[in-house]
Automatic annotation (TrEMBL):
Protein name: Allophanate hydrolase subunit 1
SMART domains in alphabetical order: AHS1
Organism superkingdom: Bacteria
Domain Carboxyltransferase: 3-199
One Pfam family linked to the record: CT_C_D
Keywords assigned: ATP-binding, Hydrolase, Nucleotide-binding
UniProt GO MF annotations: hydrolase activity
InterPro entries referenced in this protein's UniProt entry, alphabetically: CT_C_D, Cyclophilin-like_dom_sf, PxpB
Length: 212
């Protein structure tokens, strides 16, 4: 795996990878081998931020650890999560405004699209766009879903959408260009909770159909 390790201030390293699959593979290795002094691992689409306490883990030592982990991590690892028994289950009413049109676009029935969405073993790859908005990926998800040509100015809180190879749910009302296939009542972001985000990076997720 190619990983470029760059300093990011005095207490963090930014690791640049070639692909999201590499980020996830490196995240797994780092999480399993984190030495004392590692504060947080924050994945993104092509980068991984390693936040640390330099009094306990100097930047040079942390960089050596990250490079060794990158050499160990498999290239283009599958994003399937471990520990599906501990997966977050998100109940979804699959009557999204774009469900039928998205199914037509993909050449399947709406029932088939819902069945694949609920049968898929999802993993939170990273958080972005808004607090609590998890970008979910899966090895067994077969669809690449185009975004809307024109983004909506208002997407309701809890809307469950698809875009590219990702699935996700809007934690609050906001603009958005994902195709909406359903809606959940789950509390995706609660600043008073610990942790505030229901869907943390690396977490396994299952969607479950509810309603009529």
């Amino acid at each position: 795996m190619t990983a470029r390790v760059l300093p990011s201030g005095r207490a963090a390293l930014l690791v640049e990878c070639d692909a999201l699959a590499d980020v996830l593979a490196l995240l797994d290795v780092l999480a399993a081998s984190a030495p004392p002094g590692v504060v947080e691992l924050v994945p993104a689409a092509r980068t991984l931020l390693v936040s640390l306490d330099p009094a306990r883990l100097p930047l040079e030592s942390a960089a050596s650890w990250v490079r060794a982990a990158a050499a160990e991590a498999p290239t283009a690892a599958a994003p399937a999560p471990a520990g599906l028994a501990d997966a977050v289950v998100v109940d979804v009413d699959y009557r999204g405004v774009d469900l039928a049109a998205t199914a037509d676009l993909l050449g399947v029935s709406a029932e088939h699209l819902v069945a694949r969405h609920t049968a898929t073993a999802w993993r939170v790859a990273f958080i972005g766009f808004a607090p609590g908005f998890g970008y979910l990926v899966a090895e067994d998800w077969p669809f690449d879903v185009p975004r809307l040509d024109v983004a909506r100015t208002r997407v309701p809180s809890g809307a469950v959408g698809l875009a590219g190879g990702f699935s996700g749910a809007y934690p609050r009302e906001s603009p958005g260009g994902w195709r909406l296939v359903g809606r959940t009542e789950a509390a995706l972001w609660d600043p008073a909770a610990d942790p505030p985000a229901l869907l943390a990076p690396g977490r396994a997720v299952r969607f479950r159909a509810v309603g009529s």
